[in-house]
Give the backbone structure.
Amino acid sequence: MRKQLLAGICIGIVLPVLGAMLYTMLFSDLSLKSSFETLYEQKRIGSVITLGALPSLLVFFICMRKKKDLIARGILLGTFMWAIVMVVIKFS
């Protein structure tokens, strides 16, 4: 039971990062590091990480459909953690 929740939290934390990296690699001509530095300087990193959270939404709904409620709850908790990070980045 606890392992499923922890797995969901890990998925909710890792998938937005991977999604943001994929989005950046697809739509930027710069290297990954340079792209993220530029996005941070332009105060757009939050938008890219928010777009990167879309894959976790997909996994969340798949888990809900397959009755993996604890994993889905963990994904939601991980996403809420990212939401807190986004608020801090937005107002700092």
Observations:
- The chain has a mean pLDDT of 91.
- The radius of gyration is 14 Å.
- Helices lie at 2-27, 32-41, 45-52, 54-65, 69-90.
